[in-house]
Write a structure and sequence with these properties.
Structural class: mainly beta
Radius of gyration: 14 Å
Strand content: over 45%
Number of strands: 11
């Protein structure tokens, strides 16, 4: 059974940085994709970033929401089966619960429903 465990959330001042991690267990990735989503109180869940890769790992693609482009970076460590979200220049509006998601099929995915597995979420709070 696949499990995704997020970590790295916390409280940070505006302008600060955090790095979220999402460790996948129960299955090794061949080709696939992992994404980050977030949900703020009273708002719908929204796409943040995604990374997809080919079976050989030679081809990797990333995509970001406009609201985080230039500030957030998604990356993966294949050996650790882990995806990271480096968040810089954080703003109060980045405050949300952040969720990671995974699928073991090739192709980029921007919507929650395209993924097969989801983590429990980690809280990120940015104080202004």
């Amino acid at each position: 059974q696949v499990q995704l465990v997020e970590s790295g959330g916390g409280l940070v001042q505006a302008g600060g940085s955090l790095r979220l991690s999402c460790a996948a267990s129960g299955r090794r990735f061949g080709s696939g994709a992992m994404g980050w989503f977030r949900q703020a109180p009273g708002k719908e869940r929204e796409f943040v970033a995604t990374i997809s890769w080919s079976w050989s790992g030679s081809s990797t693609s990333t995509s970001y929401a406009d609201s985080v482009k230039g500030r957030f970076t998604i990356s993966r460590d294949n050996a650790k089966n882990t995806v990271y979200l480096q968040m810089n220049s954080l703003k109060a509006e980045d405050t949300a619960v952040y969720y990671c998601a995974a699928k073991f099929r090739p192709g980029t995915a921007w919507s929650w429903g395209e993924y097969d597995y989801w983590g429990q979420g980690t809280q990120v709070t940015v104080s202004s």
